[in-house]
């Protein structure tokens, strides 16, 4: 078996060295009390979901390379021909008549600006598109609208997006040739923001009404525009500026209608494997957590953090393990609902790229996904009794939900199956409770409780009713079965 050790320690969980050896401890764990709550998991008892959103089925269909997707809870392709998936992404040409301007050619589509869109035609087409891509009314999953050409706040259409402000001013002037430039800009701003709000809201409401079993939201929302790492790399804090937080507050109408948030933590070249990367990511996630409570603080929105696939940064350069920690690890440690790993056709260009992708999945990404997913699950059971998700006590720290490499090792056998071998220590538990707390799921009761006389089977993994007489316990985790041979080898097989 090939050993795949992980490099980060994680505040581990309550356990004993043998099932017959009880660990007697009295620890007061405040699950939630007055602290933040979190959205319920999309999949029961799965506090942190790993989701794959890339057209990698092409590798199997065209090159014969079978990619190992077992660690992922949800899998969806980005291809225009793919339908009935548990994660659906709607680009500009896949949902209604989205108005936009080609920034390179200046060509306008569907009126170009939202003020000129025929809403009735748009909603009719959107209805057809939703039924095409999501034919089932029972399908549960994520619905992500990816419209990036313009932003609903006038002030945020800077740079190449200024064309929408220019066209909006010209539209006002065409209606009144005598209007002043200042007045035209004032009216243009009002009209643009009203039309943009209406367009985004009505599109969102249509999707929710048609497919309520899916979590609807806009990709890249919220954003906090903490992109100043190039201007001031040595003193970069990652903080979201107060002005951007205030502008996000102007979008409360969007947060109140969304049923999920999909912020992005894409790492540009200057951030990759740098000390600024975790600062960039955690501040963006923290702003999403703040926004998730706008509509109802007792029932916050689920947050699924988008990160582009980390293999093909440029050419075929393999990303460092640090960047997995800085994106996936940060997301899990902050207690969000999950991570969405996105990729495009560059992942499947040839047999060689597919083989490189396959190797990276098997030897780097998948073991890390298993590590973090298991750690989050174990923490949820230990601190929250499956009624919440663990999150850092200090959100701006570098504490991660990782299996302790001194006590655990992830193995891969010749047939490609993974196993986790090891047992936790009492020191793991102490570190775990010191660094994390439980964010209770909305609607669940998380009163402070005492942990005493806990053994491995009854407390950590499963309820006593599921403890098999042969010493092998199991719980279903999406499409993956994790097994704990607690009385024999101390292995968890997958």
Automatic annotation (TrEMBL):
GO CC terms of this entry: acrosomal vesicle
MF GO annotations: hyalurononglucosaminidase activity
Reaction equations catalysed: Random hydrolysis of (1->4)-linkages between N-acetyl-beta-D-glucosamine and D-glucuronate residues in hyaluronate
EC code: 3.2.1.35
Active-site annotation: 148
Coiled coil: none
Gene3D superfamilies xref list: Aldolase class I
TM region(s), chain numbering: 21-39
UniProt keyword Magnesium, yes or no: no
Enzyme kind, highest EC tier: hydrolase
Protein family according to the UniProt entry: Belongs to the glycosyl hydrolase 56 family.
Organism: Chelydra serpentina (Snapping turtle)
Pfam families the record matches: Glyco_hydro_56 (PF01630)
GO biological process: carbohydrate metabolic process; hyaluronan catabolic process
Name of the protein in question: Hyaluronidase
Glycosylation sites: 371
Domain of life: Eukaryota
UniProt cross-references to InterPro entries, sorted A to Z: Aldolase_TIM, GH, Hyaluronidase
Cystines in this chain: 59-354, 224-240, 379-390, 384-438
Keyword list, A-Z: Disulfide bond, Glycosidase, Hydrolase, Membrane, Transmembrane, Transmembrane helix
